[in-house]
Amino acid sequence: MDKTEPFSRTLPAPTAARPLLGLTVLVIEDSRFACEAVRLLCLRSGARIRRADSLRSARRHLRVYRPSVMIVDLGLPDGNGIDLIRDLNQAQPRVEALLGTSGDVHLESAALEAGADGFLGKPVTSLATFQELILSALPPERHPPGPRRLSDETVAPDRIAFQDDMAHIANVLDDPPNEHALDYVAQFLSGLARSAQDDGLERAATALARKRASGEPTSSETAALAGLIQNRLSQPIAI
């Protein structure tokens, strides 16, 4: 296991310009588009980033590495991120900063009740919001010295990552549909569409979620989503 002491003198000290310098952020996130936004925010802030795309991958990662900060998506392909937050909050030693994230802001209270130190509502694009939320969960000795000007910078993830997410969900829908898969598709696409500001995709994902919640047939909503996904995949990307 990587047992690097978090306050070791070998780690670079944070600065006003790079307030998260010396931190390693582990992002538990199945969306490449959302993860790309966090990668850019970490890059601007001086933090290193690692990614796990499922609960299973996260638990495997934690057997080897000890991150300084963890950002846990609440809707993952193999379970609920709330369960991982609850386990991490009770673990010893505890991760220094533990955050939940979701496109559904109504889940913030559940994340905090499970033990999260804070909550990032998607889309995560504001550098100041990202830095301040992480710093607020860290002890004072992990903060940069002196005054610091809050940045008004925002980040814009690469559209290639959005296409990767579209391809991922297209593969999920190619398999015989089941209740778990359809719930996952609706949840995943709702958050992704909100982050990408794709109103048509968000409306279609919301329609599927509503039909699933009411127990009604979803064949037309699923077909509509599949068509929108293929349309997004066929769109050229400027390089």
Automatic annotation (TrEMBL):
InterPro entries reported in the protein's UniProt record: Bact_response_regulator, CheY-like_superfamily, Sig_transdc_resp-reg_receiver
SMART domains, per database record: REC (SM00448)
Membrane-spanning residues: none
Keyword Phosphoprotein found: yes
Domain (Response regulatory): residue spans on this chain: 24-137
Modified residues (4-aspartylphosphate): 73
Entry keywords, A to Z: Phosphoprotein
Domain of life of the source: Bacteria
Presence of the UniProt keyword Phosphoprotein in the record: yes
Protein name (database record): Response regulator
Organism from which the protein derives: Sulfitobacter aestuarii
